[in-house]
Amino acid sequence: MATPTKSRGSGTQSRPGRALSLIVIIMVALVGGMFLAGEFTPRLGIDLAGGTSITLEAKNEPGQPNAINKTNMDTAADIINRRVNGMGVSEAEVQTQGNNNIIVNIPRGTNQKQAREQVGTTAQLYFRPVLTVAAGATTGDPTASPSPSASSTDKATDKATDKATDKATDKASSSATPTPTATSQGRAVTDALKADDDKASPTPSASTSASADPATTALQKKFTDLDCTDNAARTKVNEGAKPGDTIVACGKDSAGQWEKYILGPSEVNGKDVKKAQAVINQQSGAWVVNMDFTGGGSKKFAATTSKLKDQQSPMNQFAIVLDGDVVSAPSVSSTLSANAEISGSFTQESAQNLANVLSYGALPLTFHEQSVTTVTAALGGEQLHAGLIAGAIGLALVVIYLVVYYRGLSLVALASLVASGILTYTLMTLLGPAIGFALNLPAVCGAIVAIGITADSFIVFFERIRDEIREGRSVRPAVERAWPRARRTILVSDFVSFLAAAVLYIVTVGKVQGFAFTLGLTTLLDVVVVFLFTKPLMTLLARRKFFSSGHKWSGLDPKRLGAQPPLRRRSTRRTAPAAGSSDPKEA
Questions:
Q1: 490-496 long-range CB contacts below 8 Å, 24 or more apart?
Q2: Which residues lie below 8 Å from residue 190, measured CB to CB, with a gap of 6+?
Q3: Helix 70-86 crosses helix 112-120 at what angle (to 10 degrees)?
Q4: Of 49-63, 276-290, 461-475, which gets the smallest average pLDDT?
Q5: Fewer Cβ in 10 A, N or C end of the chain?
Q6: Which helix (H) or strand (E) holds 291?
Q7: Across 148-157, 271-280, 533-542, which has the greatest mean pLDDT?
Q8: Partners of 106 in the β-ladder
Q9: What secondary structure letter does DSSP report for 10?
Q10: ω before 442 within 30° of 0 (cis)?
Q11: Overall pTM > 0.70
């Protein structure tokens, strides 16, 4: 008697409850994550939720008449896009318009003020040696020593605050000390420039010519006349300045008071910064920005700080200049190279903003806001309503087809669609705060298309089961034998869909990526649902009498499917031929 062989896939036949338990745990965890995150609906893109549209216009800089070109505009758009995405805002649209405009559309729900600062900041960063410093307003004490708002993580010490306190004490104790005038400011400028020249060229001719240099005279006047409280004057003071020029700049001390500086040529710039990160200083508990330099940047920074460490204050300080303003001016007591720290009156948001713009680099052009408008979601809402109606109609047609053609099996399909819907909704909701995913109209279309992909997987499995029943097998063996064949087909089909979605996501930009991302996500979820829900559920139902007996409403009725009874071979007894008989048929 022949030994019955074990059907393929029967190893999983007795333990479908484990797979069902696993997917239920996954659903509960995702729903629990929604409650913990406080997010119960997916984030919506600008076409569905509205938002802000910012138009930036590029400006020609003096001496650079041909700077506005397609290459620089495309580079600026890419940097702005990465900055906005670095804030955790997805579905933001950044595109060039015409020859000198960039349009930035940011969905509602984003910090609009923060976003405007990110997209409009040029982020030209320079490290310049401090030559002299005075009070930023035209009134008051112009020789007050600075109170640096930054320090360096490689043993950079902040001496200026102590010196400012000492000077204030000296002034209070001696009423005979005269108030510095514009003339004294001019002498301070000349002395500073002379000292700077002495460092570069110690010959007497170089130092004695400083006071007679017309450029020095113009710089003296610019420094003396500058009022840092005047925003227009502060903005124009360095127009057309180059990294190698000596400039006048403004900045605020830790108390929020304006100070003005004369700064030497820059030897280190933002391109030398490899990474910037907003962190909390463990000693002060304040927010700071840590900068790591590239290999070349470390060498330049070491060379700069080695020149400053032996100088007297304020010439032992270097100023961190961002878009023409002094962010901070720490003093140096030793040679620094690896990294630097910018500190001051930062909030978490402002520190993260500065780190973000430094990390993604400076814009190759200067932009100003041409217009800022509010985008309503009225049109997108109408399109979404129409799209949802179309999706509901399509889903209803699928359900009707399943019920009519597959009868009882339609319950398995509907339950699987519900499971897929729960997983899709919860993941889209959690991906909003996690990676900034926002649901737009193309993404909704991708989710609707996924209904057909998921239903197709069920149909492949059901038809394989029916084929086994048509060959004369009962329901339980038919389910287990059909699964390996259906599994291969489902995996190949889903792989092709996912590959198409991945390619579409890589080669496209903007809203089309939302369609590709949603299509790829739902395709992966289809595999999860079929393996962990549909197949185990079908295994359990095949043990129930309604399905195992082939009820006419089960969708697995052998008679309705045209199944033939299994063929059986007749057992015939053969006898040995008679002795001497030459005919084998004689028995």
A1: 490/457, 490/460, 490/461, 490/526, 490/527, 490/530, 491/527, 493/453, 493/456, 493/457, 493/460, 494/453, 494/457, 494/523, 494/524, 494/526, 494/527
A2: 210, 211, 216, 220
A3: 150
A4: 49-63
A5: N
A6: strand 287-293
A7: 533-542
A8: 52
A9: G
A10: no
A11: no
C-alpha 483: how far from chain center: 40
Question: What pLDDT is attached to residue 575?
Answer: 52
Helix, strand or coil, per DSSP, at residue 366: strand
Mean pLDDT score, 152-168: 40
> What is the DSSP secondary structure assignment for residue 326, as one 8-state letter?
E
The Cβ-side half-sphere exposure at 523, using a 13 Å CA radius, reads 21
Per mean pLDDT, which range of 144-153, 178-187, 206-215 is the poorest? Answer: 144-153
The two tokens of residue 372 are 């800022």
Q: Work out the mean pLDDT of the chain and round it to a whole number.
A: 76
CA distance 265 to 245: 5
Sorting pLDDT into bands at 50, 70 and 90, what band is 483? very high
Report d(CA 280, CA 291) in Å as an integer: 13
- Give the integer Cα–Cα distance in Å for 25 and 524: 18
Tell me if 373 sits within 8 A of 53, measured CB to CB. Answer: yes
CA distances from 197 to 98, 111, 223, 268 (A): 47, 47, 18, 19
Q: Give me the residue label for tokens 């992966």.
A: 524
Q: Rounded to 10 degrees, what is the CA torsion of 177, 182, 187, 190?
A: 150
What pLDDT, in 10s, does the model give residues 417-428? Answer: 999 999 999 999
Q: What is the pLDDT of residue 65?
A: 66
Check whether 564 has a pLDDT greater than 70.
no
Give the C-alpha distances (Å, rounded to integers) separating 88 from 81, 98, 141, 424, 496.
Answer: 11, 28, 45, 21, 30
Question: Is residue 23 a contact partner of residue 422, using CB atoms and an 8 Å limit?
Answer: no
Sign of the Cα torsion 394, 398, 400, 401 reads positive
Taking Cα atoms as reference points, which of 306, 54, 300, 257 lies closest to residue 139?
A: 257
Rounded Cα distance between 3 and 393, Å, is: 53
Q: Which residues, in sequence order, are bridge partners of residue 259?
A: 135, 251
Cα dist from 554 to 410, 465, 469, 493, 562, whole Å: 9, 13, 13, 27, 15
Mean pLDDT of 121-126: 75
Question: Is the pLDDT assigned to residue 169 strictly greater than 60?
Answer: no
DSSP state of 179: P
Q: What percent of the chain has pLDDT over 90?
A: 15
One-letter identity of residue 35: F
**d(Cα 245, Cα 214) in Å, to the nearest integer?**
14
Cβ-in-10-Å burial (0-12, 13-18, 19+) of 15 comes to exposed
Which of 519 and 107 is assigned the larger pLDDT? 519
**Per-residue pLDDT tens over the stretch 131-157:** 988 887 755 443 444 434 344 444 343
Whether residue 71 has pLDDT greater than 70: yes
With beta carbons less than 8 A apart as the criterion, state whether 370 and 101 touch.
yes
Token pair belonging to 525? 């979820």
- The alpha carbon dihedral of 217, 220, 225, 228 has a sign of positive
Tell me the pLDDT tens digit for each residue of 83-100: 776 655 556 778 888 888
Rounded CA Rg of the chain: 38
